[in-house]
Amino acid sequence: MSFQVHAKQHLRRKGIGGHQSARSATVEWLTPPYILNALGPFDLDPCAPTKRPWPMASRHYTVLEDGLSQPWEGRIWLNPPYGMNTWGWLQRLSAHRNGIALVFARTDTEGFHEWAWACADAMHFFRGRLHFHHLSGARAKGNCGGPSVLIAYGEENAHRLFACKLPGATVRLR
Fold first, then answer.
1. Domain range for residue 58?
2. pLDDT digits (tens, 9 = 90+) for 73-119
3. Is residue 140 part of a domain?
4. Which of 6, 50, 136, 144 could form a disulfide with 19 if both were Cys (CB 3.0 to 4.6 A apart)?
């Protein structure tokens, strides 16, 4: 089965929620810079916000370029749009085998079992809930509303999770 066909099937399944509320005016949120600094540098962010006060990687694709369908090279930083499309992004990163994703820790869902538990090399579960940043760079007042996890694909990325000293616990899967 092709990547795109398989990903579309996952899009029709239940999502894992979003890190936006009914009061939020955007679905674009920035990764806190301390997380990027602890794990980087990255070569590509295939789902970067259209406007950002700091780079997530050396290269960026935004919604305008449809990063899910573009070629990926190098080490990937992935903070995908949360919701129905999360599993397609994780499937793509799993196939690429070189990067780290930041998603909600919805460990009981089918997509998490298929694209995280079954494919990742390591995971870092954050202590507490993250505060993302607005496109202006300002830290959001409220937290993201759910537990977050970093998912590493590839040995170098697993090593970076163990060395990062971010609050929480890191587990090796492979």
1. 3-18+28-172
2. 999 999 998 777 899 999 999 999 999 999 999 999 999 999 999 99
3. yes
4. 144
The answer as to whether 58 is a domain residue is: yes
What's at 39, amino acid-wise?
Answer: L
Using 50, 70 and 90 to split pLDDT, how confident is the model at 51? confident
The CATH number covering residue 122 comes to 3.40.50
How far apart are the C-alpha atoms of 145 and 84, rounded to whole Å?
A: 17
Do 80 and 148 contact (CB within 8 A), yes or no?
A: no
Q: How far is CA 118 from the centre of its chain?
A: 17
Looking at the chain, the whole-number percentage of residues with pLDDT higher than 90 is 67
Q: What angle is formed at CA 46 by the lines to CA 60 and CA 139, rounded to 5 degrees?
A: 75
pLDDT at 27: 61
Task: Kindly state the average pLDDT of the residues 57-71.
Answer: 96
Torsion over CA of 1, 18, 50 and 7, rounded to 10 degrees?
0
Q: Is residue 99 part of a domain?
A: yes
